[in-house]
Task: inverse folding
């Protein structure tokens, strides 16, 4: 018996074998082309299509942030004052830096429970070297960051080569590195750092000239516009659908509103914080690494399917080790910013709810716990949500227990949205 395999399974439903559409059949059209043809109506239809298919992007967290700010502003007008928002822009950096590293790990579909302890150990190493041993601060910073990278790589080796689950090896790291931090700090338990030194300036230095904040806002908007135009031209050259100029300009205008509003608010208080500049620079650089480099595509590939990535020739073990090394390095960076805020390294560094806040920030910001979806901007958005809740609660004098419950509810809502979104995307054939 012979089987006819000449038919094209990819033909649309309703089309006969000769390729002529059946009467009344609707030929499939690339939705991006519809956007071009229909103008604003096309944009709106494309947006609704993506929402129905579960591709929500940053929409839930942005809406959540707007609601949170509106509620706290209604309860206390000081919440959106220039002073409070300026302090908030600095408070998010320490936890946010750690959350950026968590994003990389979550993209693999794994978890790192050691980042809190690694951040505390890094701050202790810096303090001992810079204060007790008299090493130059910049050298102590390099050693502290290197120690974070090494500890992260150790976790990656046990996970990638030995086969120990990431949950277990990083849980062991949580305990071991916390103990090592206590050992490094010694009997005193607290080492005060130079309040006018390099690390202290990370969170205390402000660019007081109003041109700095306006200039950064302009740089961000112009940078986005240039990148979007370059991407559109590259796509046109390759003959693939690209965003039309009107959409690029509209997106740029939408970005310009919060950028210049932030610059205005910061200039009403002390100016542009150095900590925020560094945080944004780290996010942009690592976002470029994830979305525009071969390494970033390998990370996403592993998050999608380890076996498929292996068959594609990707060195799975090396990518895994590098991701955990990045998480360790970012934990060390976050630890230094936290030490900068209190001008000390102590036995409480990396403890409390720091670990949970960092993981929650990455997830709330839109990074999937199931791997393969997310970006570094998730850390910024998620940390803003968590720290906004903490700031609002502090202004209203509400007990910390209520803050934990609310943060937990927000985290659960983010995971539920992620799960429903994945299920919807699978049902619509987009996952």
Result:
């Amino acid at each position: 018996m012979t089987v006819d395999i000449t038919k094209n399974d990819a033909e649309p439903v309703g089309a006969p074998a000769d390729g002529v559409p059946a009467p009344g059949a609707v030929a499939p059209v690339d939705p991006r082309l519809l956007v071009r043809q229909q103008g604003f109506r096309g944009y709106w239809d494309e947006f609704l299509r993506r929402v129905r298919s579960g591709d929500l992007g940053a929409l839930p967290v942005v809406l959540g942030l707007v609601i949170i700010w509106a509620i706290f502003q209604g309860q206390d007008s000081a919440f959106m004052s220039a002073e409070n928002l300026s302090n908030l822009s600095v408070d998010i950096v320490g936890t946010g830096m750690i959350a950026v590293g968590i994003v990389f790990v979550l993209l693999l579909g794994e978890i790192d429970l050691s980042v809190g302890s690694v951040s505390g150990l890094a701050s202790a190493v810096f303090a001992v070297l810079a204060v007790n041993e008299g090493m130059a601060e910049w050298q102590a910073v390099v050693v502290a960051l290197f120690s974070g990278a090494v500890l992260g790589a150790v976790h990656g080796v046990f996970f990638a080569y030995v086969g120990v689950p990431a949950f277990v090896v990083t849980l062991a790291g949580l305990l071991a590195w916390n103990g090592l931090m206590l050992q490094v700090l010694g009997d005193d338990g607290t080492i005060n750092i130079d309040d006018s030194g390099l690390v202290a300036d990370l969170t205390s230095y402000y660019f007081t000239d109003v041109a700095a904040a306006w200039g950064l806002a302009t740089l961000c908007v112009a940078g986005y516009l240039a990148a979007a135009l370059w991407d559109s031209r590259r796509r046109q050259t390759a003959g693939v659908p690209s965003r039309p100029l009107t959409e690029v300009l509209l997106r740029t205008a939408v970005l310009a509103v919060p950028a210049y509003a932030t610059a205005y608010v910061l200039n009403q208080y002390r100016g542009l914080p150095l900590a925020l500049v560094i945080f944004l620079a780290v996010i942009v650089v690592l976002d470029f690494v994830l979305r525009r480099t071969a390494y970033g595509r390998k990370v996403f590939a592993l998050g999608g399917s380890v076996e498929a990535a292996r068959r594609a020739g990707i060195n799975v073990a090396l990518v895994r080790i590098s991701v955990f090394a990045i998480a360790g390095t970012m934990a060390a960076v976050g630890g230094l910013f936290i030490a900068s805020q209190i001008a000390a390294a102590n036995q409480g560094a990396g403890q409390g709810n720091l670990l949970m806040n960092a993981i929650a920030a990455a997830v709330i910001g839109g990074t999937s716990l199931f791997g393969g979806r997310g970006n570094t901007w998730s850390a910024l958005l998620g940390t803003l949500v968590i720290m906004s809740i903490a700031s609002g609660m502090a202004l209203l004098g509400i007990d910390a227990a209520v803050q934990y419950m609310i943060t937990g509810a927000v985290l659960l809502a983010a995971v539920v949205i992620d799960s429903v979104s994945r299920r919807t995307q699978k049902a619509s054939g987009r996952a």
Q: What stands out?
A: The domain at 59-208+270-417 is CATH 1.10.3470 (ABC transporter involved in vitamin B12 uptake, BtuC). Residues 1-19, 24-37 have pLDDT under 50 and may be disordered. The longest strand covers residues 190-192.
